Structure formats: structure tokens, C-alpha cells
Amino acid sequence: MRAVIEVDKLKKVFQSIVAVDGISFEVKEGEIFGFLGPNGAGKSTTIKILCTLLRPTSGRALLAGFDVVREPDTVRRSIGIVFQENSLDDRLTAAENLYLHGLLYGLPRRLLKQRMEEVLEMVDLAARQKDLVRNFSGGMRRRLEIARGLLHHPRILFLDEPTIGLDPQTRKAIWEYIHGLRREKNITIFMTTHYMEEAENCDRIAIIDHGRIQALDTPANLKQRLGGDVLIVTPADGADLAPLIAARYGLEPQPVEEGLRLQVADGAAFILQLAADFRGRIKSISLRRPTLDDVFLSLTGRAIREEKVSAADRMHLSPRGHLRRRH
Ligand SMILES: Nc1ncnc2c1ncn2[C@@H]1O[C@H](COP(=O)(O)OP(=O)(O)OP(=O)(O)O)[C@@H](O)[C@H]1O
Ligand SMILES: [Mg+2]
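Above: the input record for the complex with adenosine-5'-triphosphate. Below: its predicted structure, written as C-alpha cells.
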């Protein structure tokens, strides 16, 4: 498969800030490709360069074979974009927002009407098209923005934090649209996120931090590279067990919200050992498979965001040191 996005040593410097620090990657036709990284990593800056809204300081980017700096008009016709910030006009209806966009793209009136029906249907907003956007919920706005990004049938759709601030149900619905789009129209999707669950929707992910790509692979491969299990140990009475655990097992416990995070080859066996060795000094131990957040942590030494362990995964120690599952 050929690449529809080709990026070579791309760099963007704002005064003294190096926002994008010489990144190179390719995205294939029909791929869902994601940038996963924390605030300020350079995700939006990269998108803005690829969408011709910002000039790179150096390096090169080609979209559908066209150079973003030398052929911006041709590039713009091949792409659709959903910005991180709300960019709808609140005072207009959903249909009027779409219509305006179609005019800007020079779509003939009749074709525009037809496309509007098509995209409104797709994001399930046909019945609300005459309503003012001011009265839309966050999820409806986001769906409308995605519809607008698709109005001119772009080959590549850019989504900057497509589901930020939305509830899990709406997030899921939006992802169903995106997967459907790819299936039906073989559209290429380039997205950014700092939600690791969202990154799981991508065929490949680039983990980006401080403007640099730290790793690039499928979500499964990234996690597999870590191997083993992750344990979260919550000490009883706030004791600092990190140095003791480090000395005893030669591990490097990392402080997290709930206590200490350990990475071990065989989690189940290690829990028993730990429970026996530190009887009475541990409040709880949870076991799980590595997530993309763990991948990020092992690459950068920091978490993208605080880890949340579900209650069902959390193993609790009874006062006598026996393991039991909390419900
Ligand atoms: N126009 C600008 N002028 C100066 N600095 C900027 C500008 N735009 C971005 N930056 C800086 O570049 C860095 C990268 O910003 P960017 O918006 O690309 O991050 P991001 O990965 O999208 O973060 P977030 O997850 O918060 O959206 C930040 O340090 C930011 O302050
Ligand atoms: Mg951003």
C-alpha cells in the first residue's frame, strides 16, 4: 500500500519552544493512524502543519503526493479537518454551518444539498439539522464537526482530539462512525489523542513526547514489547515500601496515584511472594496486562494521565494476608 502522508524530519520552532523536533513517519492509504502524547507534546502543531495552517521551520511533508508548503491549495482539497477547539458557529443551525463550509469549498449548490443530506444522515443529525448549534450537546457538536469535515469527500481526515470531553457512550458512537467511514470510503484517518483507550482504535500509533516520536507501531506490538504483567501495590498506612521492594527483588517501583507500580514477568506468582514477604504492610495489590499508558511510562518515565484500575481487577489482602477479590 502506498503512503498518503509522508513526513520527513519535520520541525517547528516557536521563538524558543521546539514544538515539533524533527519527526519522520508515513501513513498508508486507508490507515487509522494516531499520535498519542501528553499536553504540549506537539500533536496539534503537527496537524496544523499537515493541514497547511502553519509553516514548518524545516523538513518536508507530502499529502497525497503534494507538498504542504509549495502546493497548499491542492493539499487542502484532499483533506478534511476537525479541530481540537470548537469551530462551529453557534448562531447558525447545523444545516447552515454545513452549507457555509460547502460554499467555501466551492461545491455546486445541488451537489452540496445532496452531500449535506448524506453526512447528516451518517452522524445521525438529519432530524436536528434546523436547530441552532447553540442548543446542541457536546457530542452532537462533535458529530456535526466530523460531518462538516467530510462534506467535500476528503481522502484524508484529520481529527485533533476527536472525543475530548465526551462521555464514553458518545465516544463509542463517534468511533463507530469513524470505523464505518474507513470501511465504506477507504478514507485515511490521522488523529491525535491523549486517551489510551482511544488510541486502541488506531492501526498504528506514534507515541509523541516533547516533539519527538518515541515509538511507532501497532497498539498490540507496543504492549507486547513490554511483556509480563503490571502490579499496582497500595501500602498499608502510607509506608514507603519502594526502597524495600527495590532492594529485595531488584525491581524499580514507580510511584503512581494508588501507590507503587511494578512490572514483573509473572504477576500471579509475584503477588503471592510479595504478600508473604510484606505481610500486614500492604493494603491491596492489583494485577493487569500492560496498557498503552504503561508503554508511555516505560518510554518516558511519566504517565500520560493517572491510572484508573477497575474495582474488579483490584485484589485485596485480608488482615491475615489472604488474597481476595473486592466486588
Ligand atoms: N502559536 C504558538 N506560539 C507559541 N508556542 C506555541 C504555539 N502553538 C503551540 N505552541 C507550543 O508548542 C508546544 C506544542 O503544542 P501543541 O499544541 O502542538 O501540543 P499538543 O500535543 O497538541 O497538546 P494538547 O494535548 O494540550 O493539545 C507547546 O509547548 C505549546 O505551548
Ligand atoms: Mg493539541
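Notes for the reader.
The chain has eleven helices and 16 strands.
Residues 306-327 have pLDDT under 50 and may be disordered.
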